[in-house]
């Protein structure tokens, strides 16, 4: 190895230091580019289901314990055991639906572990997630009350991996029965008089994997069997969700073949038809290749992550084409009930807890995903980010009594007007952001008429270097809203600096009566056109 002089060594160290410091900073800004956006207001789509802005909360790491539940005796301010700061933050987002208790955790969960006096509940090992103990202090009552408290619909994932259809039907009866019957009376004895409103019931989770390693034929048969026995009172209108495919494991799992089989044996032509089929996709390297870091990444990490994110569009097209063939009347909804960015866990965090930071790049992941979901509203009726708090692409991070809202939270907040809005097709002139062999649309948009009658436009500039002048065909007097932007690709909030990245007021200008928006590099904006 060549010997370095002291001066050369110092210079090399300085250069290395500069390289590290620049790692997540955006490369020098390039000149402004123009992109044209055309919104077709003559072709309204099916309304955007508010459940597309749904959440997933699993017994995983600090997702439930500490993230949601601290118990009524905690020093952390709480409402009957639920942290007050988290409850308020979720209420502000108007969280439409929460899926619980898993995930892989769901398929080893017995509901009887989580009812009755907390001091008498059994302690179990969470085998999937770190092998830690779970004292079951958060169970059915705590979840259903929590959903009610934040105003969200409840989506419970039942265990078909190791719970019989009979036990599962008893769980549903316990939650939903208003009768003078043994299970309803047991619920009353445990503190809840009225039945809860149970809107969604998951028939298993990832039956192709942690939910039983089933081949497609077996998964479809098991789904049909459980569907027959698990029923809430008809007036409740509970929707049963069949466990569908995943787009992450091409080498082992063919998402098209799996969807085909589920639809063939459970779609509308099959007796008790399937009302919803799930799909899971995580924005991460394919086939379990090593993941990148959540912060301190370079431009390659930026471009690859957005590329993984946009890949769901190709998969959804495939899945929807299969569903359309079996179900042309679109009676079976598609629920993307796990989606989000999955990185290496944060250094120093507990193994198996999947705790990761959340940056401006994740706000882009969220915005690009929302824009995609808005394009298939006649089929996609729910999507649940994985996961709500302290796990994977979380909207909220907590550290004991402290709480921060992540850039992903802010993206959800900015997109709130899109809930139940009527979307319009929108196209952009062919400009691309390129990095190496990755080519992405430079500008990605979504347009919709909100319930308040206003026209909303969401705009994402994927390029870390170029500011873009976005010229639209939208007419009006003014446009205003919010933008999330920074000159750092990994800008994020921390417990010491919780407001490092927050939305700022943002305006578009009317030029000759048409809306023009100046998008900074990496910006995510939502504006209303007056
Ligand atoms: O969200 C983490 C895990 O990812 C879930 O438990 C599982 O369903 C999926 O594989």
Written description of the protein model:
This protein has ten helices and 26 strands. The protein has helices at 6-22, 84-93, 140-150, 165-176, 182-189, 216-229, 255-264, 299-326, 360-373, 407-414; strands at residues 30-39, 54-56, 78-79, 82-83, 97-100, 124-126, 132-134, 153-158, 198-203, 239-246, 276-283, 333-341, 380-386, 396-399, 402-405, 422-424, 426-428, 432-435, 438-441, 443-449, 455-461, 466-475, 479-484, 504-511, 514-519, 524-529. The strands form six sheets. A ten-stranded mixed beta sheet has the order 16-20-21-26-23-24-25-22-1-17. Strands 2-5-8-9-10-11-12-13 form an eight-stranded parallel β-barrel, surrounded by six helices. Strands 3-4 form a two-stranded antiparallel sheet. The protein is globular, with a radius of gyration of 24 Å. Residues 1-22 have low confidence and may be disordered. The structure holds alpha-L-arabinofuranose (AHR). Residues 58, 102-104, 205-206, 338, 386-387, 392 line the site of alpha-L-arabinofuranose (AHR).
Topology at a glance:
Elements: H1 6-22, E1 30-39, E2 54-56, E3 78-79, E4 82-83, H2 84-93, E5 97-100, E6 124-126, E7 132-134, H3 140-150, E8 153-158, H4 165-176, H5 182-189, E9 198-203, H6 216-229, E10 239-246, H7 255-264, E11 276-283, H8 299-326, E12 333-341, H9 360-373, E13 380-386, E14 396-399, E15 402-405, H10 407-414, E16 422-424, E17 426-428, E18 432-435, E19 438-441, E20 443-449, E21 455-461, E22 466-475, E23 479-484, E24 504-511, E25 514-519, E26 524-529
Parallel strand pairs: 1-22, 2-5, 2-13, 5-8, 8-9, 9-10, 10-11, 11-12, 12-13
Antiparallel strand pairs: 1-17, 3-4, 6-7, 14-15, 16-20, 18-19, 20-21, 21-26, 22-25, 23-24, 23-26, 24-25
The protein binds alpha-L-arabinofuranose.
The site of alpha-L-arabinofuranose (AHR) has 10 residues, from loops.
């Amino acid at each position: 190895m060549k010997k370095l002089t002291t001066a050369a060594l110092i210079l090399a160290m300085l250069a290395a230091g500069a390289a590290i410091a620049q790692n997540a900073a955006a490369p020098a800004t390039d000149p402004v580019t123009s992109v044209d956006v055309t919104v077709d207001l003559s072709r309204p789509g099916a309304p955007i289901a508010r459940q597309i802005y749904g959440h997933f909360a699993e017994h995983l790491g600090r997702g439930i314990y500490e993230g949601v539940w601290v118990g009524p005796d905690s020093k952390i301010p709480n409402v009957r055991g639920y942290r007050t700061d988290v409850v308020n933050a979720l209420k502000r987002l108007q969280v439409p639906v929460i899926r619980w208790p898993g995930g892989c955790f769901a398929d080893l969960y017995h509901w009887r572990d989580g009812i009755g006096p907390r001091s008498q509940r059994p302690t179990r090992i969470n085998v999937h997630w770190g092998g830690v103990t779970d004292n079951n202090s958060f169970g059915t009552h705590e979840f259903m009350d929590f959903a009610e408290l934040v105003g969200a619909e409840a989506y419970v994932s039942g265990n078909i991996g190791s719970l019989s259809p009979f036990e599962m039907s008893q769980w549903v009866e316990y939650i939903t029965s208003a009768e003078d019957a043994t299970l309803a009376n047991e619920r009353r004895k445990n503190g809840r008089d009225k039945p809860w409103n149970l809107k969604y019931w998951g028939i298993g989770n990832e039956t192709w994997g942690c939910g039983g390693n089933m081949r497609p034929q077996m998964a479809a048969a098991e789904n049909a069997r459980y569907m027959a026995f698990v029923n809430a009172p008809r007036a409740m209108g509970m929707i049963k969700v069949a466990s569908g495919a995943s787009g992450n494991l091409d080498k082992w799992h063919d998402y098209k073949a799996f969807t085909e089989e589920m639809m063939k044996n459970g779609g509308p032509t099959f007796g008790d038809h399937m009302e919803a089929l799930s799909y899971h996709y995580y924005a991460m390297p394919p086939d379990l290749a090593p993941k990148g870091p959540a912060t301190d990444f370079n431009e390659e990490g930026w471009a690859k992550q957005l590329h993984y994110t946009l890949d769901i569009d190709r998969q959804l097209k495939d899945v929807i084409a299969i569903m359309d063939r079996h179900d042309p009347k679109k009676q079976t909804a598609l629920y993307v009930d796990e989606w989000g960015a999955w990185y290496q866990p944060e250094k120093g965090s507990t193994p198996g807890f999947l705790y990761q930071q959340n940056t401006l790049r994740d706000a882009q992941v969220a915005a690009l995903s929302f824009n995609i979901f808005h394009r298939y509203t006649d089929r996609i009726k729910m999507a649940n980010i994985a996961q709500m708090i302290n796990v994977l692409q979380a909207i909220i991070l907590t550290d004991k009594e402290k709480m921060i809202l992540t850039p992903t939270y802010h993206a959800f907040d900015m997109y709130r007007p899109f809930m139940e809005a009527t979307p319009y097709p929108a196209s952009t002139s062919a400009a691309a952001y390129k990095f190496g062999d990755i080519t992405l649309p430079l500008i990605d948009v979504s347009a919709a008429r909100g319930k308040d009658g206003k026209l909303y436009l969401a705009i994402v500039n994927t390029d870390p270097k170029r500011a873009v002048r976005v010229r639209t065909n939208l007419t009006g007097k003014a446009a205003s809203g919010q933008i999330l932007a920074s000159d750092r690709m990994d800008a994020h909030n921390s417990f010491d600096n919780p407001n490092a990245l927050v939305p700022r007021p943002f305006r578009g200008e009317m030029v000759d009566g048409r809306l023009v928006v100046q998008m900074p590099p990496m910006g995510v904006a939502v504006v209303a056109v007056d």
